[in-house]
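REQUEST FORM: STRUCTURE PREDICTION
Request ID: SP-0412
Submitted by: Lab K.M.
Chain count: 1
Length (residues): 119
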Amino acid sequence: MVGWARPLGAPADAPHGTAQGGGLDNPEGGTLTAKRNTILRNAVTAKGGTAQGGGPYHAGGTAGLGTTTLEGNTITHNRAGDGGGIFKASGILTLLGDVVRDNRPNNCSPAGAVPGCTG
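STATUS: Completed
RESULT:
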């Protein structure tokens, strides 16, 4: 597994920089699989910067080949500047029976980037 998990409710903060992945972070094109977790009440902030992925953040790396598979997780009440629930920059992110709801400002971003995720 490449990527990592932050303790429940711990903030990711990067004033004037880039903060990503409050709950799970797979930024460099690795392979991440998470099954039956609760990703709850994480916050990603970057005053004057970029804050993405209050829950999971996924990027496919320079070659765009990275994968994140989420199965049976509950991703709720997370927040970020964009992708309050999940932010997918590139690569492949698959949801398999996950509950993604009540995240701010949206559940998944960019719109349509995470098949099976709405709002």
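NOTES: Residues 5 and 24 are 5 Å apart (CA to CA).
Reviewed by: T.R.
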